[in-house]
Amino acid sequence: MAASAGGGAVRALSQKEQDIQMMLAADVHLGTKNCDFQMERYVFKRRTDGIYIINLGKTWDKLQLAARVIVAIENPQDIIVQSARPYGQRAVLKFAQYTGAHAIAGRHTPDWGAAPASVPTGDGWDQTVAPVPVDGTVPPVVAPTGWESAAQPTAQGWE
């Protein structure tokens, strides 16, 4: 009886709460001892040992936003994912493997942030891209420079 009551309590959780519970179990909420001023709004609190605890509710909301942006792109080869950090490179490679996106695992060309650039991938894909900030401060989403609210992805690329 107790097992079924516990199972019912878990089922009563919303999908967001269940996903946050899984992120807690995977220690996604544990940050580092360094906190950039741009990340302060995503920090829940700081432990006594100096480790920052990340607000998983805000993390979940950003993941949902990123998922909506990615799903809106018809051709997965128009997506570039990147991580210069060693602990993010495996995730970038796995994401690209499962979605068909292009992965950049490692450092990028320094002039990328300054101006739009062509992305050399070795397979002939040469799309002009520019970083598109999701909320004005974090530029993780990349879209073609022709991106407008009326622009739509096509089989040949963006128009």
Automatic annotation (TrEMBL):
User: Which Gene3D superfamilies does the record associate with it?
Assistant: Glucose-6-phosphate isomerase like protein, domain 1
Q: Name one GO biological process term.
A: translation
Superkingdom, taxonomy of origin: Eukaryota
An example Gene Ontology molecular-function term: structural constituent of ribosome
Q: Which InterPro entries match?
A: Ribosomal_uS2, Ribosomal_uS2_euk/arc, Ribosomal_uS2_flav_dom_sf
Pfam families in UniProt: Ribosomal_S2
| A single GO cellular-component term on record | small ribosomal subunit
| Alphabetical UniProt keywords | Ribonucleoprotein, Ribosomal protein
> What's this protein's family per the entry?
Belongs to the universal ribosomal protein uS2 family.
The protein here is known as: 40S ribosomal protein Sa-1
Q: Which species is this UniProt entry from?
A: Zea mays (Maize)
